[in-house]
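Changelog note: in this version the structure field was regenerated for every chain. One regenerated record is shown below for reference.
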Amino acid sequence: MTFLLESPWPVLFVGIAVEAALAVALLRTGQGRLLWAMLAAAALTLTGFGIERLVVTDREAVTNTLDAAAEAVEDDDIERLLDCIDPSAQRPRSDARWVLSRFDVEKAIIRNLKIDINRLTSPPTANAHFQAIGNGRDRKGEIPYRTYGERVIVKLRLEGGRWLVTGYSIEHVLPQRP
């Protein structure tokens, strides 16, 4: 059922389909009371859409944390970036400081995001697998490449109602032989 809370499309699709069916029935039968059913269906669809917008699922919250971190990297804002990282996670915090001091990142993109939530741990944890793509320049001029991409696994933990980064690793994917 969480799929209904993670995207507005299922609710809108069902609402539109019901409205269309009721409209066809109204045109064929001419029964005015079908207008009440159409009004009720529209109200339920809008209610479902509103609930979907108000409820933030764990996957959406993890995505929001990762998006906030990517925006902070693009804005060269170390404080906002560190706010996405657990204060006890020393390696990610020091790596974040190093990256922002060394590189001027113009664009940080997250693609093909897959999130695994584990609510059985205390506190709950998550792993986010994605393709990280960065576009920018090396401030020291030692690295000539302007675009960088890697498969990344980011580990997060739910602390005080917020998902915070606790660690990460780079997936080194070997090319497949034909």
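Spot check on this record: The first strand starts at residue 103 and ends at 118. The CA atoms of residues 119 and 125 lie 7 Å apart.
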